[in-house]
Amino acid sequence: MSSEHKGSCLCQAIQYRITTSKPIGYTLCHCIDCQKVSGSTYAANLFILKSDFHLTKGEDSLSTYSTSATFSGSTLTRHFCKTCGSFVFSTTTSSDKLIVLATGCLDGHPEWKPTQEIFCSHRRAWLQELENTKRFEKMNPGRNRAKL
């Protein structure tokens, strides 16, 4: 049974809903790119199917930035709000069925918890490991999102 969650950018120009009871994954990423895009020590990324993501407002307010200088070699496109600059979600060429949602844009507090931390080799020394997560120095070697 799916449940609905809503989210938005800071200025509310972009709004969305997701319809899933369980995301594909919830990852804390400590890579340098995620630190820079989040403006923080890591990015909290929720992996969901594109079919579970519904943009309800603000498609014309989206701006994108793409890079292929990624660990996987896939092109990653980040989607931002043109007005407030909030990073809302990413898409990747490694899977056309996947959305990587920036969890800071979710409204409320869904009960999901991160299950893994990646690029721990870049974790800030003062930042403690999150209990009950799998940890990887780089990318999770067992992941294969291309088959989604």
Folded structure, characterized:
This protein is mainly beta. It has a single domain (4-147), classed as Beta Complex (Metal Binding Protein, Guanine Nucleotide Exchange Factor, Chain A), CATH 2.170.150. Helices cover 5% and strands 39% of the residues. It has one helix and eleven strands, in the order βββαββββββββ. It has one helix spanning 32-38, and strands at 4-8, 15-19, 25-29, 43-49, 53-57, 62-67, 76-81, 87-92, 95-102, 116-118, 134-135. The chain has an eight-stranded mixed beta sheet with strand order 6-7-8-9-4-3-10-11. A three-stranded antiparallel beta sheet has the order 1-2-5, with no helix packed on it. The model is unreliable at 144-148 (pLDDT under 50).
Short account of what is shown:
The chain is mainly β. It has one helix spanning 32-38; strands at 4-8, 15-19, 25-29, 43-49, 53-57, 62-67, 76-81, 87-92, 95-102, 116-118, 134-135.
Topology of this protein?
Blueprint lengths: L3 E5 L6 E5 L5 E5 L2 H7 L4 E7 L3 E5 L4 E6 L8 E6 L5 E6 L2 E8 L13 E3 L15 E2 L13
Parallel strand pairs: 3-10, 10-11
Antiparallel strand pairs: 1-2, 2-5, 3-4, 4-9, 6-7, 7-8, 8-9
Report the portion of residues in β strands: 35-45%
CATH fold-level assignment: Metal Binding Protein, Guanine Nucleotide Exchange Factor, Chain A
- CATH architectural name: Beta Complex
The CATH top-level class label:
Mainly Beta
The ordered H/E elements are EEEHEEEEEEEE
